Amino acid sequence: MNSKKKIALITGASSGLGKATAIKLAGAGFHIVLAGRSEEKNQIVINEINSSVGQNSCEWLPLDLKSLLSVKNCADLFLKSNRPLSLLINNAGVAGASGRTSEGFELSFGVNYLGHFLLTNLLLNSLKKSRNSRIVTITSKVHKHVRFIDWELVIGKTSSITGISEYAVSKLANILFNRELAKKLVGTNVSAYCLHPGIVDTNIWRTLPFFLKPLLKIKSMQTPEEGIKTIVYCSLEAPHAENGYYYSNKRIDTPSDIAKSDALAVELWERSREWTKQFM
Ligand SMILES: NC(=O)c1ccc[n+]([C@@H]2O[C@H](COP(=O)([O-])OP(=O)(O)OC[C@H]3O[C@@H](n4cnc5c(N)ncnc54)[C@H](OP(=O)(O)O)[C@@H]3O)[C@@H](O)[C@H]2O)c1
Fold this sequence. Notes:
This protein is α/β, with parallel strands linked by helices. The protein is built from 9 helices and 8 strands. The protein has helices spanning 16-27, 39-53, 68-80, 107-128, 164-185, 213-218, 224-227, 229-236, 262-276; strands spanning 7-11, 31-36, 58-62, 87-90, 133-138, 190-196, 246-248, 251-253. An 8-stranded mixed β-sheet has the order 3-2-1-4-5-6-7-8, sandwiched between helices. A hairpin with a 2-residue loop joins strand 7 (246-248) and strand 8. Helix 1 (16-27) runs parallel beside helix 2 (39-53) and helix 5 (164-185) packs across helix 9. The chain is globular.
């Protein structure tokens, strides 16, 4: 790679918003690390980027957020190269899926939130080595449907039929994580943002139960290229002073009341540290 390029690590860049963001940021001069499950799918994106931006603009790192061990291995591989990281985009996600992670967490909670909690913490020193680095976490407006977190339900198999309530909890966790992370970053060169991208036509909707799919036709969906505008804004332009905010439509937005609870954000952070301590 060109050692002068800033490095952006994006989770889940094999499709949808992650892929469109990788292409956009590679075009803006970043070296892109695509962290994801399938080498084959990620190689297609790498070929696309290399053919438009030039060879060695990106690389793939194996990451399955369903396994905390895989998260640790992914971070270790990156850290071994001893390179500063300028941008971490916690993007990968599942919705309407059912199951549990390798360590026994509810699937959406584990993949969308807990894996990213561990990844971020493991990469923090690398982010501190860059000037003005950023952590951008993709959440969703769907978090507004959550009234409280039932700590017993984030462990074990998805209990609802649709998996949507679990998805909403995982997206609330993303916002609470961003809130507490930002506090811990005060006084450092790193800032953290989270955002709702809008409703975007991506693969994420494929796992929705069939009886909910007609609802999607009612909403007019953005293309992934349109849907990344707030991700790109938070990655390149949002002011350092706005560390910790929730964005939509390239502007600070107001999340739900519970997403603004400092006490809940601290509790989630402490529980997550305990859950992941053997991998830290
Ligand atoms: N689309 C929307 O309308 C919308 C709205 C609000 C928020 N979001 C958020 O936007 C983010 C991106 O989603 P998208 O809409 O672009 O969906 P997408 O096209 O389905 O992309 C999801 C990405 O996550 C990856 N992923 C899934 N499970 C993973 C795992 N266990 N380990 C590593 N990577 C995994 C997928 O990789 P594989 O190719 O290996 O499956 C894929 O690259 C998600 O966090 C989602 O919650 C989307």
